[in-house]
Write a structure and sequence with these properties.
Helix content is 59%, strand content 0%. By secondary structure, it is mainly α.
């Protein structure tokens, strides 16, 4: 339970680097109040992906060593597949956790665009295209400031 309580401290520190580590822990504690179960459910949802990655690596391992591949080639193949699965799963879990942090803050994620270039209308992003057209920090909607 404590690991869930303090899990958002890293994101709070990244979000506001001027705070102390103790303040980041306090913020995480406040943010996770009544939300620990939700994050646990999110964590449990990745079990299927972890089982799939393990199964794929084991199948490749068995096929590689049973086939006519030399031991070194089979080992390299297994390492490549294992690294690819681990990179995918680590990125997926990290991005989901960062999205959960934004959810706790009450912010929304950037809008999702469809393949035809139009903005996706969903109840989560409200079709707001402000992410594509950032505001000038000094006022106005001039985009020349970020070039």
């Amino acid at each position: 339970i404590a690991s869930y309580r303090y899990r958002m401290a890293e994101y709070a520190l990244i979000d506001d680097p001027d705070i102390s580590a103790l303040e980041a822990i306090r913020r995480s504690k406040r943010m996770m109040l009544n939300h620990k179960w939700e994050l646990f459910v999110v964590d449990v949802s990745f079990i299927g992906w972890q089982i799939l990655c393990t199964a794929v690596v084991n199948i490749i391992s068995q096929l590689g060593f049973v086939a006519v591949l030399p031991n070194a080639a089979a080992t390299i193949l297994v390492l490549i597949v294992d690294t690819a699965c681990s990179m995918f799963l680590t990125a997926y879990i990290s991005l989901t956790e960062a999205g959960f942090y934004l959810y706790l803050l009450g912010q929304q994620a950037p809008p999702v665009h469809s393949t035809d270039g139009t903005s996706g209308q969903s109840p989560y992003n409200g079709g707001n295209d402000d992410w594509d057209h950032p505001q000038n920090p000094f006022g106005g909607n001039d985009q020349s400031w970020n070039q």
